[in-house]
Fold this sequence. Notes:
The structure is a single chain. This protein is mostly helical. 74% of the residues lie in helices and 0% in strands. The longest helix is centred in the last third of the chain and has 26 residues, at 177-202. The mean pLDDT is 93.
Amino acid sequence: MNVVRKNLGALGIFALFFIAGLIPALLYSKYDIQIYINQFFHPVANNIFLFFTHLAEGWFTIPLLIGLVIYSWRKSLFIGIIYLVSTLLVQFFKRLVFDQLDRPHGEKEIVRHPGYNWLPDIEMPAYYSFPSGHTTTAFCIFLGLSLLTKNKKLGIAYMIIACLIGFSRTYLSFHFLMDIVAGSLLGVLTTLLLYFALRKKLKI
């Protein structure tokens, strides 16, 4: 409970993101939500969210792990473990459990929708939608950093970044809203469970 109390700000940001996404995802169809969000499509916002969405990819996470090794190999090992476990879990759910769920580009109702905006010159994936891997990685890594940092205000900033990464996946039409809601929950649960399991062994 002491860990939860110390990180209440970061966990509160996650809770707001999760609830704000879960409620409309339960009340409205994924198509209606996607089309509504797409109405705010704008070139400036595209560039902003493309930047954030790339923060959950290898070009960022691998240098992060290398940098953490210099600072603390124990903390780097922890982030590496939760990153690996979350990635394996996402692939398990995507390819073996929810493999029939398509992304927005795989849904004819959206592809044929008049006026729907797609990113120019970017090949959009059509399959393996649930849960969002980028969102899972974002909440996993940035919550992990939040737990490890002594500056809990910085921890809140980390979680805001995770939220922006998650939302970018729906805004950019890579995932439906429920995909990122599930991804955020998977990332947070994976991180918390592994933190409590490993913190004494790794002395973090």
